[in-house]
Amino acid sequence: MVVVLNGVLADDCPTSVRALLEAHPGYREGAAQLLTETARVVGPAGVLYVGQREMAAVVPHDKNVNIIGSDDATSCIIVVVRHSGSGAIALAHLDGSGTAEAAAAMVSRVQQLAVGYPEGRLELQVIGGFTDPHRYSDELFANIMLSFHRLTVEIDLTLACCCELNTLPGGLAPLVTGVGVDIRAGDLFPATFPDKGPELPLRGARTITSGPHSAQVLDIYDNAVGMLRVGPFNYDPLRGVDLWLEQSDEFILQHLSTTPAVEPPHFVHNIRMTLKFIQQHPFPAVTVFPDNRPHFYRRDEHSGCWISVRY
Question: One of this protein's GO BP terms (predicted)?
């Protein structure tokens, strides 16, 4: 029993937003406040973008990162864990794969980064997802809550803006699909990220293939050296990738999205780029990571963007 709700240790973990609100209606106010804010369009300089099935952790004094965030969460949920004393933050974009492992890893990373700060508590924020026709977000919310509840540390749920609290009134669409966190102030705000960082097709390939690393939520940031880290990982060849690429945009939208009616305009383009990458690199362990080493990117001092570096 480690999830804290409104300052009280929960005997039972709510596994739906409705159950959460019945016991603690105050969470509605927090969600409503976030929904009143206009989404910021965040440029690439100083941004650490976390994609689907990825996570990253940072500290306020990191000179390479100003904002950490993610977007395009329709049926997915973005999770933020923060230590109030040190300001250390972990953010993940969860889609239902590797949820329990990701929850444990996020808490562990934040605890490591908060060493030396005796004061402070762990805080949990969950944003994204909506009342979709198949209730994917509802199931994901339940799994996220249970995953944190089963850990051996107390964590205070400070914001829940997801599922029915994040659904357009009278319609089946999410209101907030992306958030950013100012790592120095600790402020969370609705956001979109036109630039999602390097090697996006490679990073996205894991989510539409199978294989030993496809279900994992990967940590993409190396705090020790202040670098964005991609891989190494492998995935299985995608059967019929040539046939997929021959299909219409509408066919790809309908068959490769859990929520085709609410995907952003760039969804199909990004999927096509990912499919082309998989077509060109069916065995990434051979052609992309032949030395089994990560691809590292450091922050360029002039542009503020990530540039490739040998490390």
Answer: ubiquitin-dependent protein catabolic process
Rounded Cα–Cα distance for residues 144 and 228 (Å): 25
CA 213-282-268 angle, 5° bins: 85
Q: Which is nearest to 91 in space by CA: 74, 76, 110?
A: 110
The CA distance from 229 to 112, in Å, is 19
Q: Are 207 and 281 in contact (CB under 8 A)?
A: no
* Predicted TM-score (pTM) above 0.70: yes
| pLDDT level of residue 272 (50, 70, 90 thresholds) | very high
Give bridge partners of residue 295 from the DSSP assignment. 230
Q: Kindly list the structural domains of the chain, giving each domain's residue range(s) and its CATH number in brackets, ordered by start.
A: 3-309 (3.30.1330.200)
Please answer whether residues 46 and 62 qualify as being in contact, where contact means their C-beta atoms are separated by less than 8 angstroms. no
SS3 309: strand
